[in-house]
TrEMBL record, chains A, B:
GO terms for molecular function: glucuronosyltransferase activity; metal ion binding; xylosyltransferase activity. Residues 36-66 are annotated as: Disordered. This is Xylosyl- and glucuronyltransferase LARGE2 isoform X2. It is a single-pass type II membrane protein. The keyword Zinc does not apply. The keyword DNA-binding does not apply. It comes from Bos indicus. Its cofactor is Mn(2+). It comes from the Eukaryota. The gene is LARGE2. Bifunctional glycosyltransferase with both alpha-1,3-xylosyltransferase and beta-1,3-glucuronyltransferase activities involved in the maturation of alpha-dystroglycan (DAG1) by glycosylation leading to DAG1 binding to laminin G-like domain-containing extracellular proteins with high affinity and in a phosphorylated-O-mannosyl trisaccharide dependent manner. Elongates the glucuronyl-beta-1,4-xylose-beta disaccharide primer structure by adding repeating units [-3-Xylose-alpha-1,3-GlcA-beta-1-] to produce a heteropolysaccharide. Supports the maturation of DAG1 more effectively than LARGE1.
Length: 696, 696
């Protein structure tokens, strides 16, 4: 019997009620229960569900609904909270954008973490014909937090219930999506199904593709009431206007309250309540064809759908990560998921032809700036790279900001895939917070995710924030990356490092102590210099103290950084003085100086015009000097550069005279801007530049 | 006037003829020239073209044709020749497969180069529900080579004319595609347009989206005759059965011969002849909606199509590489192209649900083998990687095999993206042929292409064959890669090297001389050992002679390879003896020996079970020894390992005990197989293994 575990009389009464409503609605239509002829078929008059446990909408190919008008704006709502959900929602949105031909308005109900991530992402993504609105999930919590729930995420799930009041009152229709669905078709086809709604129907849903609501999965399994197998709420078509009119809020609260008299909590969050309401008011629901929500949960019955349906439209995952290679069907679905997981999101920045839409903020200026570039300019590639707006996904992995401490320091650096292996060593050397910008493709971002997940050292650290900047263009946008990492540092001080350096084990503690001792907070405007060394050997035992470092230096196992090829980069640090120094000492700026420094978080940004190899750090130090930062060398601080194969950019710099000419041109323009900004005070930088020197 | 440059009387006569035919065919239909009502609209009765220069099919949204039956096999023909065209065709096929829901039969008319590439590719790709047939383009050449042509590729273009006789006689319908088109939709929708053909129509084409055939592009511009703007042959629906019946071969040859009396050659290859035939027999053509061939050539008029059409279905490129960022429309199209260029082709190995199709060759055994793996096995990842069939694209870039020489040697190596920068140096050190396997994602393969194109050193070399093996799985399939590179070496001898080694400048010449001197060809079964050294320094001046190398060795600037951590790997080479040696000397195998050797091309393959780090070369040397190869050390040969950051696999090997256990398990299984194969003779390897030693 269907309603096992619930009072039988109540079940029987509900069934009777349902039949009566059905008769009332369909007026004893002689076609009831029989398939209709193709031409006249609509779902409007179909009964919402077959009480024997199988909603009839399953796998009957519906007539193709008329497509929505070419440029109609489609509305989509998604509830999203936390770091991992934010990654999921991006994959969903990529699949949505890939197939869509209509302008979209995304309504995102988010917590603070997801909002921070997604706001940055969409702002930098600049996809044409997509509007984004955010709604504060925390403000909605009180409306659902009274419902006993089996897990925290369920609270966010429950928020789908309050969308009719949370979304703007003039919004009449919306498609509501779980973050774990992937589109395999144009969402306009789903939107078109609103046309199948009868005058009263307000909720479009696909039948549940499991036996959960039949209540026979195990002994004493007591699911919430539902019509037959019930409906799955991973994909919902909502007529918000009708729900508001029908008193939806009152309706679901009444049902939930009543059910909670006999049931301890919801198991499947909003889905339990939607089903209970629908069981009570079946006229509300318009069943949707199964292919609009192919559910790949445990014990799924989805094969019934996908072996018969002409086409699959939306795949709904429970956890794609768990899907192993064995089930070849699941493997096929997984490929679709991976398609969008790894899809280059930059390619979705394509306009909708023939739909006049306001361009995304900043897009017009960008177009104009790009249009002004001369393709014949030898430095075209540099100019284009400088103008590129990279998609940015901040805090790609779960991250816990450190508790505020007045002298705390975040290590700031940037890297690409080939330096990933530095991360574990870096974590061992720097126990404090880090803010790292990673320059990756979408595919590499997934490899990076797996890399962190399989590393015990990295997954143990919650104070390392990884910010993915998506690759675009052929030159490494080094200063843009540094600025992303710098902007996301949350401590009052930052150590501006590079990824191929390992700091002294004691550096983190020593820096905090030095900052406190030097009373930097607000009183002195200083940049603390961390002297840099290098080893040419892979197999290298890291010095545990300054004394040990000096021994290695004397033995020729270590050198001061770039001693052989670019001594002026660090000469002003005055290594001879450092050997003997017991206290911090002040040094003067000189041409080409590029020390590694600790500065307040609000220090000047790096000049984003420097892309690829050359002058990117030098320009930043000039900026610090121009803004009158004292340069103070710390006597016990050191950091050591490890050897690596030369980067692509340095190779190009060395082999390509045009590349070098372009770096020179950028330098000149930088100096012009400097003079414009600082006037006569900037003269010394120009004078220094004009003295003959070694390589750039 | 339309037919500028052709005799006016002829033009006028043709126009008159056309009008008469039109009247005859459509019987003075009163709807002629007017749009029909939506419900009844078909293209059957429409005139093929408006002689005022604009075919009327443009941008009138056709009624959606009925989709073909769910599992109907769709036929596609493509002409493809050479290395670059083969790359193009793969991008086209990826777009085709991405959207298709039907089984496909691809008919590929290829030259020997393309056949070699595509046969390997499709064999290793193993896409379900795709059949491939090859047709020898060289055999078809005589049928079209009499037509004067402006360029060689045109000869292959012309082959589209002979498809009705070249394809199997029972093949009635086929979609013919140029290699430079990209699908943005399901090809079944295109196939469905066959249903619009009237009883006589045999060729479906989209109007040309340029003014070329109007003949007014420049003074004395004399295009071939065409109806108005003519038709573009990048996408063709062919009713082969009707063409055969109508005497197509006779028809087009007659037209071509006649036109060539006054025109010197075809400018646009087959397209000129198709248009001339259609001009003469307009009843043959069924105009297709413009969105099925959106042509982005120079001076394109395609915007007329894409600004109005509800949807774009097929994009036709002339040269996407030339499309710069400036035209924002073109940028949008370029994104579609890049989507499939960079799309992970592995993801297209998805089955068609509900279409019973014979699995691709080998797929069933592979499924079974994968199904037998134990997911709980600690070495599951290794087992899965060993079984993985990687997609292989041999000779990814144009390659000219070296002329056959009896003692020639090919350098064989494998690499992934992070070693790309070794290639230039390697080219400088090795002036002979190379066969290199590259382990890349589809996206990386494009980066690699650009890397070679922008390198003067690399693009000057035609004797370096690059074979792309597409990434799948987390362990580096080192021996599978070596086997791909080895199988593609075309000289009688191979130097089995690794990518982080640079050979002595003289090595290539010296090896060829040694092979000749030692009379290896057939008479001796020998492996010539090239002694290996290493430097720990990046900045390193490569020794130009053995004497110089010995000086560096004595100075401690060079070491024998892996002297510090794995001396047994090269100890049997006997470096002390090598110092003094004037002639090749024989050495004996000992445990863990893994020298770099020169062997005949038909040497044993590497054991593909070794994936990731560990024992992959050792096992190969055992195999050589077991097959009684003499190990002869060459007194003047040397190769030097350059430093690099440790690979991901070596890092995992060092940090992960399970990884080491798995390598040990693989070793054990290798020895079991060895005993099974060589019996008692293999005992010595097992005995050697059981002696306690250093790291694996």
């Amino acid at each position: 019997m269907l309603l096992r575990g619930r009072p039988r009389t109540l079940g029987a009464a509900a069934l009777l009620l349902l039949l009566l409503i059905g008769f009332f609605l369909f007026g004893g239509d002689p076609d009831y229960g029989r398939p209709r002829s193709q031409g006249a078929a609509t779902f409007d008059g179909d009964p919402p569900a077959d009480p024997r446990g199988h909603n009839r909408s399953d796998c009957i190919p519906p007539p193709p609904p008329p497509p929505p008008p070419k440029c109609e704006l489609l509305q989509v709502a998604i509830v999203c909270a936390g770091h991992n959900s934010s990654r999921d929602v991006i994959t969903l949105v990529k699949s949505l954008l890939f197939y869509r031909k209509n302008p979209l308005h995304l309504h995102l109900v988010t917590d603070a973490v997801a909002r921070n991530i997604l706001e940055t992402l969409f702002h930098t993504w600049m996809v044409p014909a997509v509007q984004i609105s955010f709604y504060n999930a925390d403000e909605l919590k009180p409306q659902v937090s009274w419902i006993p729930n089996k897990h925290y995420s369920g609270l966010y799930g429950l928020m789908k219930l309050v969308l009719p009041s949370a979304l703007p009152p003039d919004l009449a229709r919306v498609i509501v999506l779980d973050t774990d669905v992937t589109f395999a078709s144009n969402i306009a086809e789903l939107w078109a199904l609103f046309a199948h709604f009868s005058d009263k129907q307000a909720i479009g849903l696909v039948e549940n593709q499991s036996d959960w609501y039949l209540g026979n999965l195990w002994r004493n399994h007591r699911p919430w009431p539902a019509l037959g197998r019930g409906f799955n709420t991973g994909v919902i078509l909502l007529r918000l206007d009708r729900l508001r009119q029908a008193g939806w809020e009152h309706m679901w609260k009444l049902t939930a309250t009543r059910e909670l008299l006999t049931l301890p909590a919801t198991s499947l969050a909003d889905q339990d309540i939607f089903n209970a309401v629908i069981k009570e008011h079946p006229w509300l629901v318009q069943p949707l064809p199964c292919m609009w929500n192919v559910q790949l949960s445990d014990h799924t019955l989805a094969e019934r759908c996908y072996s018969e349906a002409p086409d699959l439209k939306v795949i709904h995952w429970n956890s794609p990560k768990k899907l192993r290679v064995k089930n070849k069907h699941v493997e096929s679905f997984r490929n679709l998921y991976l398609t969008f997981l790894e899809y280059d999101g930059n390619l979705l920045r394509r306009e909708l032809f023939g739909c006049p839409c306001p361009p995304p903020p900043g897009a017009e200026q960008l177009q104009q700036a790009l249009a002004q570039l001369e393709e014949q300019d030898a430095c075209f590639e540099f100019r284009q790279q400088q103008l590129t707006v990279h998609r940015v996904h901040i805090t790609f992995l779960p991250h816990k900001p450190p508790p505020p401490q007045p002298h705390d320091v975040t290590l700031v650096a940037q890297l690409s895939m080939e330096r990933l292996q530095m991360l574990e060593a870096l974590c061992r050397h720097w126990p404090g917070p880090m803010s790292l910008a990673l320059y990756l493709t979408d595919t590499e971002a997934q490899q990076f995710l797996r890399f962190v997940e399989t590393s015990a050292v990295l997954s143990a650290r919650q104070d390392v924030a990884y910010h993915v900047v998506y690759r675009e263009g052929s030159l490494y946008p080094i200063n843009q990356l540094r600025n992303v990492a710098l902007a996301q540092a949350l401590t009052p001080y930052v150590f501006l490092s590079d990824i191929d350096f390992l700091p002294a084990y004691s550096l983190y503690d020593y820096l905090r102590a030095s900052i406190e001792q030097l009373e930097l907070d607000g009183r002195r405007k200083a940049a603390l210099v961390v002297p840099a060394f290098e080893t040419l050997h892979y197999r290298f035992s890291f010095p545990s103290s300054k004394a040990e470092l000096l021994t290695l230096l004397d033995a020729g196992s270590l050198y001061t950084f770039r001693y052989h090829e670019w001594p002026q980069g660090h000469a002003p640090t005055d290594y001879a003085r450092w050997r003997e120094a017991q206290a911090p000492y002040r040094v003067q700026w000189a041409a080409d100086y590029e020390p590694y420094v600790v500065v307040p978080r609000d220090c000047p940004r790096y000049d984003p015009r420097f892309v690829g190899f050359g002058w990117n750090k030098v320009a930043h130090i000039i900026e610090l000097d121009a803004q009158e930062y004292e340069l103070l060398v710390l006597p016990e601080a050191f950091t050591i550069h490890l050897p690596h194969a030369p980067s692509l950019d340095i190779t190009r710099f060395r082999s390509n005279p045009t590349y070098r000419d372009c770096v020179r041109a950028l330098k000149d323009e930088f100096h012009q801007d400097l003079s414009r900004h600082y006037g006569a005070a900037a003269l010394k930088y120009l004078t220094a530049l004009q003295q003959p020197r070694g390589p750039a």
